[in-house]
């Protein structure tokens, strides 16, 4: 991972995006 990406996307933002993505995938699979 480059420092530039870290500055643009903080760790908490990445975690939120990953959590949201997993939630969407699980909801789509359930349907």
Structure description:
The protein is mostly helical. The chain is built from 2 helices and no strands. It has helices spanning 3-8, 11-30. The longest helix is centred in the middle third of the chain and has 20 residues, at 11-30. The protein is rod-shaped. The N and C termini lie far apart (35 Å).
Topology (elements, then pairings):
Blueprint: H1 3-8, H2 11-30
List keywords for this structure.
31 residues, 2 helices, 84% helix, rod-shaped
Query: Mind describing the biggest β-sheet?
Result: none
Number of helical segments with 4 or more residues: 2
In total, the number of strands is: 0
| Anisotropy-based shape | rod-shaped
Weakly predicted, low-confidence segments: none
How far apart, in Å, are the first and last alpha carbons?
A: 35 Å
Percent of residues in helices comes to over 70%
Radius of gyration using CA atoms only: 13 Å
User: Overall pLDDT, averaged?
Assistant: 81
Short synopsis of the structure:
With 31 residues, the protein is an all-alpha fold. It is built from two helices and no strands.
